[in-house]
Amino acid sequence: MDDAAWAEAGLMLRGVLGYGVFFGVAIACSVNRRAISRRVVLGGIGLQVLAAWLILRFPPVRAVVEAVGRGLVALMDFTREGTIFVFGWLAMEPKSPPAFALTLLPMICVLCALAAGLQYLRVLPWLVAQLAKVTTRVMGVSGAESLSAAANIFLGQTEAPLLIRPWLATLPISGLLAVMIGGMASIAAGVLVVYAVLLGGDDPSAQARFAMHLLAASVMSAPAGLMVAKILWPDEDAVDLRIRTIPPEGVNLIDALCAGTVAGLKLAVNVAAMLIVFTALVALVNHLLAAGPGEWFGLNAWMCAVTGGTSAGLSVQGVLGLVFAPVAWLMGIDSSQVLPAGALLGEKLVLNEFFAYVSLSQPPMTELLGDERAKVILAYALCGFANVASVGIQVGGFSALVPERRADFARLGSRALLGGSLVTCMNACVAGLLVG
Known about the structure:
Structural class: mainly alpha
Oligomer: single chain
Shape: globular
Mean pLDDT: 84
Low-confidence stretches: 94-98
């Protein structure tokens, strides 16, 4: 083999090592390692890898998922028609300053409305139930947990548990953790297309390709999330394998679409506000770090030298890059790219995945990462709601559904954050092996 082939083999072997390390961390953090089920572990790994291989390497399945990705991206054009109707000339020029607010955020509203409509028509519950049956039969986990995990492929971390709301009060601690990790380890369909458009830029084929990757990551997270949850907190009693669904809410289809639109509006406003505030706060902290400790102790020059010029001075991104560079290395990312990749992983954990995807889609990050492979691996690594803010979102959202279990949700928050982060890292390792 030539040098390039040896280098690629080394990166792939590093991905295998990384998967083993992340798996080992889950084992080390288990509350009862002796109770871990081999069936859950082998079934979870098998379904995770099988889902990735079918979508990325098996032509018939890949073609179907790519077609779904193209269809989701095509929704951008339909959404633009509605945006132009409301905002007129402001939305007609894609390169204008309000392009982000008037192209990506309306897409969240449209997708949330469509998801609510499909849920009312029982299309989404039926599909979720079929996927849940697979994980229940292969892994032996409870029907309620499988149903919630499958729902997270399409719905957000606080919407998916609504499908199992009647059983949340009686789920054991291991079941509650599985539900929480499932939410942390995936993203909602309402933002999936937005991320695909961000990563694909102005190229529709690239947008569809990244939509395929993000769909693959969401599907992989369902069994992987259950596996990691059952490692961190194994089942101690027999589980109920029955798949039971509740009827969708809404008087009629129009009512469901309206409710979905309102939910999408809240999410879009929340995303916009978060991006404005976090971007401003990061810029403020970077200024204080560079003008304060960076200037006083000569850390600006040190940070610039250590990061190879990727950080001009002491900054949040520079510090996060150093802290999370080993994690990026374990995913199989090239050594020359681990610092910017680590900064993105840190941004996702400390801030949120939306902020990190925006950073990944814009220069200078695209120039620092260089090749497509690193961008694809990071697309998987960032594909989850596992961040510090989500702990509060889950505790508050789940406690509203079952107030009597608020204490259980609160004490499981940090463990759910760990589990969700491990799942996305493991997904990135598997993707790195299959994309070559």
